[in-house]
Prior knowledge:
The chain is of the alpha/beta class and 244 residues long. The chain is built from nine helices and six strands. It has helices spanning 2-25, 51-69, 87-96, 129-139, 148-151, 174-191, 205-208, 225-232, 234-243; strands at 30-35, 74-77, 101-108, 118-123, 196-202, 214-221. Strands 2-1-3-6-4-5 form a six-stranded mixed β-sheet, with helices on both faces. β1, α2 and β2 (74-77) form a beta-alpha-beta unit. α2 (51-69) crosses α9 (234-243) and α8 crosses α9 (234-243). The protein is globular, with a radius of gyration of 20 Å. It starts with a helix and ends with a helix.
Amino acid sequence: xxxxxxYQRFLILCLLYFFVNLSFAQKVNxxxxxxxxxxxxxxxxxxxxxEKDIALAIVLKLRDLIKANMKDVKVVLTRDDDTFxxxxxxxxxxxxxxxxxFISVHCNSTKSTSVYGAETFVMGLHKSEANLAVAKTENAAxxxxxxxxxxxxxxxxxxxxGNIFFSMMQNAFLDHSLxxxxxxxxxxxxxxxxxxxxxxxxxxxxxxxxxMPGVLIETGLISNAKVEKYLNSEKGQNEIALGI
Length: 244
């Protein structure tokens, strides 16, 4: 009986040790904020705006919010001005910073001017043609880089076959990425009243080489005039940054 009690206490101590360490492992000490596109890579274009400018404005506001409200969290930016940063370098910045979380901010567009809503992506397989189309658009930025074939192991963003290689490189942090993506979508939908385009998986190059949980947030479609006006406004950018 005494040995049984000793064994039970040992198990309890082991479990406590496991959960304490788990809680520390999940703590975000460093976050890398990535403003999509930049420089000669404008990203999506609206009638009066460019994706690169909106993404940077939101990221700068998000940085200030984190610094003001989470003083123990270090914030690293992949760019803080209108500079072109290659996708592989964005991932490298996150890895060298030993980041606990990677957040890439974007806005997208479609041929239809009536489509609207926010969606958050994590690294994974393309679950639909729509997801593949979004990934292709964002990944096309590598065509503006020198020697992109060598840097990205022969990957061609315009090729559906080329995206198959992502199936071999599933994000080891998928569960945590999905958890955070769900929280972002909750804020966008329930707090900001955006239409919910969902949490999705797709093969984004900016996410695939990051060694931490990460999400890519499409904050809205600037092909929709009403959404574009909101994304360009101080109010809209502040609300989105606060939601994230």
